[in-house]
Design a protein that fits this description.
Blueprint: H1 6-26, E1 31-37, H2 41-52, E2 56-62, H3 64-73, E3 84-88, E4 91-95, H4 99-108, E5 114-117, E6 136-141, E7 147-153
Parallel strand pairs: 1-2, 4-5
Antiparallel strand pairs: 1-3, 3-4, 5-6, 6-7
Length: about 160
């Protein structure tokens, strides 16, 4: 028979409070669904980064031709495409967008299609070490098909 003492009781109480609290924190930024090409490693790394930043991530793999059709059907201009497309709430997230920019998008709620990091810039989340980052911009995709710079990342020194 296991004996209960004050320490065991307190530990159980802490775990019963902390576990739901940590689950609530993981849901705080919402569910994001990532559609990626089959076997894409950098897309998986980006998804893992989102998970550590508090997003609930679901994933679907798709043939590259079907993925391009999906991007175009969601209104992503061809010059703004990258290797994966995600959806969070009513926003599309194209490419290796940093989690901080997604959080800002959700907080500010602009009337826009979403965010994009075209291409696959080295040092963006999932694309190599940030301390070796090349300069890149995150674009706010507007519903009229245009875009504007949402944030800029300088090259690492």
């Amino acid at each position: 028979m296991i004996g209960f003492n004050r320490r065991t009781f307190l530990l159980g109480a802490i775990v019963s409070v902390a576990a739901p609290a940590s689950l609530a924190l993981s849901k705080s930024f919402g569910q994001i669904h990532v559609v990626k090409g089959r076997g894409c490693g950098c897309c998986t790394v980006w998804s893992d980064i989102l998970k550590t930043e508090g997003f609930l991530v679901t994933e679907t793999e798709m043939h590259p031709a079907d993925l391009m059709q999906l991007k175009l059907s969601r209104g992503i201009p061809q010059d703004m495409t990258s290797c994966h497309t995600a959806q969070i709430m009513d926003y599309v997230i194209e490419g290796h967008v940093p989690p901080a920019d997604i959080k800002r998008l959700l907080a500010e709620k602009p009337d826009a299609l979403g965010l994009a990091v075209p291409g696959m810039p080295y040092g963006s989340p999932g694309m190599g070490p940030e301390e070796e980052r090349e300069a890149y911009d995150v674009f706010l995709l507007l519903k009229d098909g245009t875009s504007e710079i949402f944030s800029s990342y300088k090259a690492a020194s």
